[in-house]
Amino acid sequence: MMQWLKKNRTAVIAVLLTALFFAANSLLLLRDFYYLPMLPLAGMVLLLFVLRMEHALLAMALFTPFAVDFAFFPGMELSMPVEPMMILFTLMFLFRVLASGQYDSRLLRHPVSIAVLASLLWMFVTSCLSELPAVSFKYLAARLWFVIPFFYACAQMFRDPQRIRQFFWCYAIGLIAVVALATAKTVGNFSDLQTLHRVMRPFYNDHTAYGCVIALFLPATFYFIFSRGSRGWARLLFLALFALLVVGLFFSYCRAAWLSILGAIGVYVLIRLGVKVKWMVLLFGLGVGVFFAYQSDVLYKLGKNHQDSSYDLAGQIKSISNISTDASNLERLNRWASAIRMWKEEPVLGCGPGTYQFLYAGHQRSYQLSTISTNSGNRGNAHSEYIGPMTEQGIPGVLLVVCVFMATFATGVRVYRTAADPQVRRTALAFTLSLLTYYIHGMFNNFLDTDKLSVPFWAFTAVIVALDVYSEKEGASPKTLPEEVTP
Q1: Residue 258: is it exposed, middle or buried by C-beta count within 10 angstroms (0-12/13-18/19+)?
Q2: Long-range contacts formed by 46-52: CB under 8 A, 24+ apart
Q3: Do 308 and 326 contact (CB within 8 A), yes or no?
Q4: Please, are residues 463 and 427 in contact by the beta-carbon 8 Å criterion?
Q5: Phi-psi region for residue 75, left (φ > 0), alpha (ψ -120 to 50) or beta?
Q6: Pick from 148, 143, 107, 152: nearest CA to 124
Q7: Taking the model in full, what pTM does it have?
Q8: Residue 327: its pLDDT value, please?
Q9: Cα–Cα distance measured from residue 167 to residue 276, given in angstroms and rounded to the nearest whole number
Q10: Rounded to whole angstroms, how far apart are CA atoms 447 and 118?
Q11: 203: nearest Cα among 231, 172, 178, 168
Q12: How far is CA 216 from CA 222, 398, 458, in A?
């Protein structure tokens, strides 16, 4: 007996530990303690992060669409299970890079990377001077565990073009399940617009974030249908994904997402016509200038529109310009007006990152309130990726956000026009147009403080940077890539 035990000591120890785990687990479950069963999974995740960090990035992309918010303590809410994984990955990635000193310096010197670093640095400065420092530093910490894994780590991982497709599919698999479920729940509820705005819960908080992420994936999905690497079943899968996303976008009833797709199509035409980036920026600036020059006449015309949001497509489109009775539009204008009043008090430093929703109530005006207005700050923030940073981080904050967006857009267009490999060129154009949908949507909503949009947004930005750094340009001599470093 003793000889058998010595010979099979490892198996015996494993069986005893398993039995002990099940016994302890059963006892704790009877006492309503549910965390012990997560320990083996946590151990597997930790092992994955240590041995295969690239696979950890893909796993986080896969889990993100299914993540749900969970409050551990009052005032401490994390998106489970992905945000703890992001925190762990960020710490391990920084430790590995600092300990080994192995990170491609060309990625750090890239204009987009410099703009991102400058934005984070200014966010730190404004957090130190924030009206609510604890809120601002929590906001900054969340931005770090979004940016470091999905921009800096992904940029190095995407030196292998196959990783781009793998990352895309990992997030898309989860998105497919959510869109299919939301679409199924939509059937039979066409007459109840409020229900239609909630069918994507609990995975996406509302229809605007849901529509935004679908719009973000549509241009890239369309490209993959005709990509050289998509043949046979792969092409059919991308075609099915595109059709499902179109249906999901339609039933999202998100007007900003619809407009972002139309805007991306318009910019695509300009790019194909060979219009330079500076002229596109000038054209956009001219449009903004004309609006402000004639804003009184424009607002008067818009005020005569009384078409509210509707499940009818024509009615929903008409309601886009209704600023007289549509509650969603009125509340957005109320939030913008409150944000501008707050910005005027601190035009350079702002009130602090992430603090708008806790401070704006006192800056509202009774004549601007809508039926969905609130003083508790529980219905989102400034509803703009531009006005929000301006209020919270001052003029430098919004300028740095614009720099990140413009540097990425200009880089994507440049790669499309100069890359030697046609596939690299088309990939750059597709992901540039995908990101453009967010830049346009960002005028009406902001979601970069959530994992649902930050994960694909920063990863798609990393795609543009990686394609620029690692692809050959027309007329250039072949470059020698440095020794590969696994993130």
Answers
A1: buried
A2: 46/88, 49/85, 49/88, 49/89, 49/92, 50/92
A3: yes
A4: yes
A5: left
A6: 143
A7: 0.84
A8: 67
A9: 31
A10: 20
A11: 178
A12: 11, 22, 12
For 265-268, the CB contacts below 8 A with 24+ separation are: 267/433, 267/436, 268/429, 268/433
Distance CA 402, CA 92 (A): 30
**pLDDT tens figures, 163-179:** 999 999 999 999 999 99
Q: What is the structure's pLDDT at 414?
A: 94
Distance CA 296, CA 459 (A): 41
Q: Give residues with Cβ within 8 angstroms of 389, minimum separation 6.
A: 350, 397, 398, 400, 401
What is each CA distance from 127 to 94, 138, 377, 464, in whole angstroms? 22, 9, 20, 29
Predicted local confidence at residue 336, as pLDDT? 86
Please report the pLDDT score of residue 485 as a whole number.
41
How many whole angstroms separate alpha carbon 159 and alpha carbon 445? 32
Q: How far is CA 192 from CA 184, 185, 195, 486, in A?
A: 15, 12, 5, 50
Mean pLDDT of 148-172: 94
**Straight-line distance from the first to the last Cα atom of the chain, in angstroms, rounded to the nearest whole number:** 49
Q: How far apart are CA 403 and CA 408, in angstroms?
A: 8
Token pair of 420 as six digits: 């030697």
Residue-wise pLDDT for 419-429, tens only, equals 989 999 999 99
Which of 25-34, 90-99, 166-175, 398-407 comes out lowest in average pLDDT? 25-34
